[in-house]
Design a protein that fits this description.
The protein is an alpha+beta fold. The protein folds into two domains: 58 residues, no CATH class; 68 residues, no CATH class. The protein is built from five helices and three strands; from the N terminus they run ββαβαααα. Strands 2-1-3 form a three-stranded antiparallel β-sheet, with helices on one face. It is elongated. 11% of the residues are buried.
Amino acid sequence: MITVNNLSFQFGGQLLFKDVDLKFTPGNCYGIIGANGAGKSTFLRILCGELEPTKGEVYIPDTVRMSVLKQDHFAYEEYTVLDTVIMGNKRLYDIMKEKDALYAKEDFTDEDGIRASELEGEFAELNGWEAESDASKLIQGLGLTDDYLY
């Protein structure tokens, strides 16, 4: 459960939000709705730790993982929708890319083998073998067909 306590944010002289108390509970989906400039993106940047609030706190237990996909309409044009969703877990995506690069090497060394083994262990801990399936379910849950995956 992610908890927001007494959160406020002021930018310059403008107060974007004040004394926000919120609990995000497992199994629920949430949307943040508001006019342009109301502070939606700022609130999300505070939630993921990218920005410090003026007041209050965000508590995310160590057992909870938050994935974030930046709001940049052109940053992902060269990627498939499936890869873009997986990128929300940056560490997992970085491991996948590093593994691919290692296994593609023609001159695979003992050191490469050791590194690949380390990456495979971390990949398994992050449920990497289910990443594509999980991302596919998420995409389909948004109403997109398999045509958009690849």
